[in-house]
Amino acid sequence: MMDLLVRNARLVTVNEVKMGNLAVKDGRIAAVLPLAEMPDALETLDLQYKYLLPGAIDDHVHFNDPGYTWREDFPHGSRAAAIGGVTTVFDMPMQNKPAVADAAIFAQKKAGLQGRAYVDYALWGALIRTNAAALADLQAGGAIAFKCFMCDPGKDYTELRLDEIEQRLQILKKLHGLAGFHCEDYVMIRTGEAERLAAGQIGRQDYLAARPVEAEEKAVYDILRLVEKTGGRAHICHVSHPQVAEQIRRAKQRGLPVSAETCMHYLLFSTQDLLERGTAFKCSPPLREPGAAEALWEYVLDGTLDCICSDHSPSAIEEKEETGEKGTFGAWGGISGVQSAVQLFWDFVVNKKQASPVLLARCMAANPAGIFGLYGRKGALQVGFDADFIVMDAEQEWEITPASLQYLNPFSAFCGCRGKGLPVMTFLRGHRICDHGRICGPAEGQWLHSMEESEEKR
Ligand SMILES: [Zn+2]
Fold first, then answer.
1. Sheet with 86-91, side-by-side order of all strands
2. 400 within domain boundaries
3. CA of residue 243 to ligand 1 center, whole Å
4. Can you give the residue range of the structural domain that contains 137?
5. Is the pTM here over 0.85, yes or no?
6. pLDDT given at position 432
């Protein structure tokens, strides 16, 4: 007897969309079946040919918990994720008090999140100046990856110089650890910003000019060179521009162990949005010139950019003000997007680009699961995997409004976006956690660690 039979589904796999049924037993996918095969089950759900997608994995969110919980917290962030069809998030180690720099802090953060998450979660560890000796214990403690800044990261974190990055890549290679990089060149950005602030040039255009695409290209060039030299793996975070993606495409062609992500805001918006509509559109790297997004899409389509993540980076609305002495430079840089990424990407891929929904199964599930060592448990509609999935109603029209957002601070650059195709139900390990925009049930999200690590431990 199965626990749940999902009937008459359009199953979205990494290769195809096929009609079928899916059976769940003990929280896992027990069978993927043709339409005619219907094993007995305690509960049956007839999808009437709606799409069934693997639960999305957002490899890059900032839930700010503990420490900065006026911006977001785990209950709000993870409820938003569940409603948006995201069943697993990887939370970042900065904008945490303290930053997640060693195994003790990691364990403390993990303990504090118990019973407060509505989706499954893994935690990034820090990769900062002071914690080289802590990396082995962090990896053994279950850090999903390690986040490194090449530019000024803000108050609670330190960036690394290239010689330090080289040494850390060597350490992580031995540990089978993965480093993720915020790629913007420290010197270029610091100099550009200092010059403008000194000259009183503090407007939106000045902010953009101080963070040129060349700074991102230079940083990615440096990382790729160190990957080649050390053989350590690197994940390039939030690629904002096709020229940067082209560098990564060539590196992959040369066989370098590099992966990359981008976000919906880089695919949908441009500098014009920041200039005309304000700091809701401020992020770093910044939005790029009109036309860049169009070209960036080609690199999603050809597989250069492996993952679509949100880089959900919320703030209080007052922190978005640009009326202080640093003008636009002083406004919070970050966009909230964990709830809207799946519907935006679906609408973009399926309706705007007339591409196959298999891209969602790849970029939002199988690829992040594979890169971060969870594939086999998470990331696909396959027998033995956790029964994490989304029912997608391709005909459902939507508009993103503040009232629709579950964030602690319910505003976003995506408010006003409209489209078609909405996750209407979300299942986590076989349990329905969300039904037509409403959370059902308690916070039963579980902490996850990389499976690569667990095999080594055995
Ligand atoms: Zn981020």
1. 56-61, 86-91, 120-123
2. no
3. 20
4. 53-371
5. yes
6. 98
